[in-house]
Amino acid sequence: MTLSSVSDVDASSPKHLRGRYAIAGVGETDYMRGSEYSTRSLATWAIKNAMDDAGLAPGDIDGMLSYSGNDSIFSPFVAGDLGIRLNFYMDVHGGGSSTEALIGIAIGVIEAGMCKTVAIFRSMNGYSQVRIGGTGARSAVPINGDQIHHRAYGWQSAGQMFAPTFLRHMYDYGTTPEQVAAVKVAHSKHASNNPKAYYKRRFTVEDVVSSRIICKPLHLLDCCVETDNATCIIVTRLDRARDCRQPPAVIQSVVGRCCKPRIDMHYQHGPISNVAGHYAKDILFPNAGVTPEDIDLTGSYDAFTFTTMLQLEDYGFCKKGEGGDYVSSGIIELGGKRPNNTSGGHLCEGYTHGMNMVIENTRQLRGEVDDSCPIGPDGKRQHTHDYGEGGCRQVKDVELTANLGWAMPGTGSAMIMSKDVR
After folding, report:
1. pLDDT bucket at 1, cuts 50 / 70 / 90
2. pLDDT band for position 158 (50/70/90)?
3. Res. 226 pLDDT band, cuts 50 70 90
4. What pLDDT score does 4 carry?
5. Phi, psi dihedrals of residue 111, rounded to the nearest 5°
6. Torsion of CA 368, 419, 343, 389, to 10 degrees
7. Which position among 37, 67, 326, 351 bears the catalytic label?
8. Exposure winner among 19, 130, 285, 391, fewest CB in 10 A?
């Protein structure tokens, strides 16, 4: 399989942006609990790290995008702290489906000539301040917007809202908690080799299914870790990215917030066990000119073990109904055919509303993930591809990655990236 060059693509087709943009820099803070930093401070920390990663000065960035759930800081304030003057900015309300969607927006505004290089950030004190389940220090918020559709039923948390989809899949296809627990097992193995991960313990299937029930069918260890952190990625044209410090991760295709016919009450539109990836895949793969079989590495949103299983299935990495078999087969582990969330993802590394999986895949394409492998005389990590505990997590010969973002069963975003082939 080879990727089409820009010159091979018809400029009048929707595929004409394939391979013309790239991620030039990535950065994050530590993954913490009780950070004692404001989201403004966390954001400047992560963006500065991404700028240093790309070798960019404040004057090189003129666009900024962010997303939040009323728990962050506005872009112009952060830009001013960093000495950046913006030609374009936008701060949007959103969570797990935002990262890939905002990458698509960044491409669009650069293509329109509104700016040249965009920093996208997410900053959140997701453990010490605004917690998703509504139990944090800043949990007293008015009930408005789409909340009126679920609070009346006592659905305070994401797990409660998504449970009908998870349970229906179990009913329709015989999927078992033990099969889906394999997602946690795989991601915990990956996190054990990640110096940045908040949780580095390797879990077993028995550990997962023996942990207390949060809401059926979710056990405690089926649920993601909560952390305080900020993350950032920098998007620009490929020709500019090639002048930056790091090898670019080339963007081949983006899907932004693709929806099922109903998202407000997702359980009212069947099949309930289908998620937005069922529709998004028909944009993602044709626009990239590849198939699921071509993908070497996935980064699938793992707010829960079930979200990863459902997305891998509906994006076509296995047949519908076979997601339980797929995730429990060893395919998604390092050393398997198509590893997933090699940093440990939301289940183990840290919860970032989707951005850390894009950061991880960017580093995988560079061949420079941080693990326990030795540093060579050239200053680069010498990856052994020994995936035992405390060892390597670099995927061998990775060329194509897919990120699968999730906000809820009815909404998702996605992206395919590749190594730079000149």
Report:
1. very low
2. confident
3. very high
4. 47
5. -60, -30
6. -60
7. 351
8. 391
- DSSP assigned state of 341: -
- Give mean pLDDT, residues 55-63: 98
Q: 112 exposed, middle or buried (CB, 10 Å; 0-12, 13-18, 19+)?
A: exposed
From residue 389, how far is each of 20, 190, 243, 271 by CA, in Å? Answer: 38, 8, 37, 40
d(CA 242, CA 54): 10
Identify the CA nearest to 316 among candidates 330, 334, 300, 303. 300
| 89 in a structural domain | yes
Amino acid identity of residue 6, one-letter, is V
3-class state of residue 252 by DSSP = strand
Quick check: is 341 in a domain?
no
Q: How far is CA 138 from the centre of its chain?
A: 25
Quote the pLDDT of residue 50: 98
* Distance, CA of 234 to CA of 313 (rounded, Å): 30
How many independent structural domains does the chain possess?
1
Catalytic residue among 301, 315, 326, 387: 301
Q: Is 401 helix (H, G, I), strand (E, B) or coil?
A: strand
Structure tokens at 284: 């993602």
Q: How far apart are CA 420 and CA 399, in angstroms?
A: 9
Residue 212, classed as helix, strand or coil, is coil
Helix or strand holding residue 39 (H, E): helix 39-54
Q: CATH number of the domain that 122 lies in?
A: 3.40.47.10
The Cα angle at residue 155 between residues 153 and 156, in degrees rounded to 5? 140
Q: CB-based contacts of 388: which residues, under 8 Å, 6+ apart?
A: none
Angstrom distance (rounded) from CA 167 to CA 215: 11
The pLDDT tens digits of the residues spanning 98-139 come to 999 999 999 999 999 999 999 999 999 988 877 665 555 555
In angstroms, the CA 141 to CA 76 distance is 25
The angle that helices 177-191 and 305-314 make with each other, rounded to 10 degrees, is 100
Burial bucket for residue 149 (CB in 10 Å: 0-12, 13-18, 19+): middle
Tokens of 399: 């060329």
Please name which of 354, 359, 107, 81 lies closest in space to residue 246, comparing C-alpha atoms.
359
Q: Is residue 37 in some structural domain?
A: yes
Q: Is-catalytic flag, 351? A: yes
Q: How many angstroms separate the CA atoms of 319 and 248, rounded?
A: 33
Residue 267 designated active-site: no
293 located within any domain: no
As a whole number of angstroms, the distance between CA 303 and CA 283 comes to 24
